[in-house]
Predict the 3D structure of the following.
Amino acid sequence: MTGSPQVVNTSRSIGIRMTILVLFFLSGACALVYEVVWMRMLTLVFGATAFATSTILASFFAGLALGGFTFGRLIDKGRSPLRVYALLEAGIGAFAFLMPVIFSVLSLVYVGISRQFDVSFYQLSLIRFVLSFLVLLVPATLMGGTLPVIVKFFATRTERLGWNVGQLYAVNTFGAVVGTLAAGFFLILLLGVKESAYAAGAVNLFIAGAVLALARRVGNGGEEHGDGQQREEQTEATPGDAFSLKQARLALWAIGLSGLCALAFEVFWTRALVFYLDNSTHAFTTILTAFLLGIALGSLVIARFIDTGKRLLAGLGVMEVLIGVSAILAIPILSRLTPVFQSMEGIALDSMLAWKWMGMRFAKSLTVMLVPTLLMGMTFPLATKIYTRSIRRVGTALGDVYSVNTIGGVFGSVIAGFALIPLIGVQQGIVVIAAINVIIGAVLILSEPAMAYRARLGMALGSGVVFLGMGTVFATGGATVLASYWETAETPEVLSYQEGIGGTVKVFRDKWGEKVLSVNGFPVAGTAAEAHEVQKPLAHLPLLLSTVPNPRVNVIGFGTGGTSWGMTQHDIAGVDVVELVPGVIDAAEWFPESNHGVLSEPKFNLIMGDGRNYALVTDKEYDVISVDATSPKMAGNGSLYTLEFYQLLKERLSDDGMVVQWLPFHLLADSEVRMITRTFMTVFPHLTLWFTPFRQHIILVGTQQTMEIDFQALSAGLAMENVQRELETLDVRGPFDVLSWFVMGEERLAEYVRNARVNSDNHPYLEFTPAMAYFVSSVYRVRNLEVAREFRESVLPLLVNVGETEEEVASVEESVQRRFEAIHHSITGDIYLFLDRRDQAMVEYRRALAVDPEETNYLNWTWSGGERGR
């Protein structure tokens, strides 16, 4: 016995509807995978400056807006929605496979323009926008067209429009949540950057095929539909809740300004939350996920109520007012967040630690953003319901709402990042943007035709009074002085605080009285001994080893200026220093003991920009390149530790030149140190590895030729008065102290890295592996020291020009060998010290002194304050 035709058709229609919802979910996931992947690829071409990344994002959003506008109108001209949607998905999938080739061509064009023409900063920004827009135009336009096209298929009746739009928008955004998580935590790490895009492309092509199959079942006339009913062929306009054209346009303007506010808030919250989380790639992924999740939930919740609502214009206004109020209320929540790292103290180290940490990070993000983003998600379906005055033109209406909202988002991110944060800071910026939300809401409430004037006026004035009271309290509360894990309650003295375009830069005194420079909550340099222990060797070691007279020097990263100043104390032709964050240069005045006013030195040349991008576009050749980047685990820094970056440095290096880069023991697992070292050695096989003086970090020294150390030249360099003065704080008195930093040469290094992976732009293992050093730094230190002790070898085979007589040569060799043996005991002492076995540590240190009384570097670390850092 079979059911009635109506029941069968309804059941089949429901099945088609659910299938399309699943496919649209997957489409949203793919879109965010592309956004993450293509942003990474374009950043490698244009650089990671705030202007460059904003240009790329604006180009992508402009394409989305164009797609919504264009295809919304196209689909209202009688095209088959499912067939058009299938073509859109197929086009997106095709571009997933074409984009890597397009990006390669783009890189050649960009480099050619940069080298051939003397362009200003603003001209270069315009060139970046034009090139990125041209590259992203077609795929982003196709993506932007999917929502109005699929809504056209679903929306058959005005009285169900709100449910259809809200449901589809929510499903697509939930897909975006999954896509963000997948790209940030799994796909790129497991598959690679290009392969992640290829996987998404394959999904898009699958969606296209599945939709085409559904289109054949549905038929060109659209006789079966997602609503379970036939499409209503309406020849006359159907008014949407009796809203006038003027009121509909008001809703359109409102959703545009709402999009501006939403993206501005995202910029503010991201800038603030990285202080309480960290500024790793996973932290940014978590923040974006929480933001999108709130929007998806809000859209899904409101979809149930829109079609039965009677005062939608006022409802949209109330939502806007509540967004502003909840954003204000998020300020005290944000300022009182206990840093996640501190809340993790004492947690047992187990296999689930990374997931616990990610979960807590996500919970803290939701605590700040959930209510405002829920409300934001409600505005889009509401605005669409108000603006759509005819079901026949639903594609056009939705395309208009989508494109205006998206363009508003572009302006919001730009205004927040380039105007409000530098001028008034995060806290006051939130208040200003929240005020826009409240004003939008008040205007909408006053325009509600279904309410009495007195009621409208009372609601609008009440909203304004409440906001003015709250806004005044928070706006006059002073600038937000954010404190990260590294800045505890015991370090209240903030010397300088600048929320700038490139990042939030702070100078503060720690609990030991030392000045610290932090960028987005992460300490990058300072006046403490452990800071100088990195900066000075990066300056002096390569110049003491170099055989090039008057070398040309390039330093990537300014910090407090200590490395740059150290370079100028040698006989060099000049030093070009590339710095990404403008606020770091402004903070230099707080560190005269480190940089000695190097900014005004004749040999010093400052280049503001991305260090990797500079290596890509410049045609200069250098004899020494010193990479003084911050932690490789921080977002964006991973590109300074990849195979392709080292290849760029090789192209910039003279035949007799060398590249040096430091690696932090306490932030990297042994496998990660090996990975970086192998990657470096792939490009520079003539590699040597060195300790910093107190053995808290290591330095990679890559040369074009086999390393030979001229002992007499090294001694002469150390005899220079300026160099002596610079290195005395590191207890360097002569050549044997510098030679004692040596760990191993190229043959032993080849054995050390034999089974390690290569870190590349396409396989950025380093950046996408969870950063757990905050909880296991001592474990990392101990393991790295143990490995270094195991693989250490004498520096003697590398020495040349040791002495003129056999006695001189024998004396030098004896001193080097004695120090080598003493260092073995010192390293063992360091290991015991980090294991908190102090008595055993002191036994090893005494053995070191017994072998060589000159081996006293451990004293600087143990008794001069360095131990506090463990």
The two ends are 78 Å apart (CA to CA). The longest helix spans residues 394-446. The CA atoms of residues 666 and 779 lie 8 Å apart. DSSP finds 29 helices and 14 strands in the chain.
